Amino acid sequence: MAHDKATTKKVMPFGGGPRLCPGADLAKLEIAFFLHHLVLNYRWKTMADDFPLAYPYVEFKRGLLLEIEPIPDMAGIGNIET
Ligand code: HEM
């Protein structure tokens, strides 16, 4: 059934109906830009002793603390920041 407990979407970050956030598409575009630059220009790995739990939903034991470091400039190869 389409609306049983397993499939109902309870997370609505932008609201819904007539009060739906009018900035939702802009916000999602900005998030896509951010993730694009993050994965292209930074290495990131989870801190030691953290791991994902996949049940009953995805969460991290220690809150997904990340170690992030910029990828050194390789004369423009594989790095889009100048
Ligand atoms: C991640 C970013 C954003 C989130 C999570 C978010 C979330 C929300 C939520 C939950 C509401 C209330 C909806 C309701 O009352 O039911 C709202 C309203 C609103 N948001 Fe956003 N929003 C975001 C970004 C933006 C941006 C970028 C803009 C404008 C450029 C924007 C403009 C507005 C406006 C004007 C309202 C009031 C709409 C109304 O009352 O009719 N929001 N937003």
UniProtKB/TrEMBL annotation:
Q: Which InterPro entries match?
A: Cyt_P450 (IPR001128), Cyt_P450_CS (IPR017972), Cyt_P450_E_grp-I (IPR002401), Cyt_P450_sf (IPR036396)
Membrane topology listed for this record: Single-pass membrane protein
List the Pfam families hit by this protein, alphabetically.
p450
Keywords per UniProt = Heme, Iron, Membrane, Metal-binding, Monooxygenase, Oxidoreductase, Transmembrane, Transmembrane helix
Which subcellular locations apply to this protein?
A: Membrane
Family of this protein: Belongs to the cytochrome P450 family.
Q: What is this protein called?
A: Cytochrome P450
Q: Give the organism, scientific name.
A: Hibiscus sabdariffa
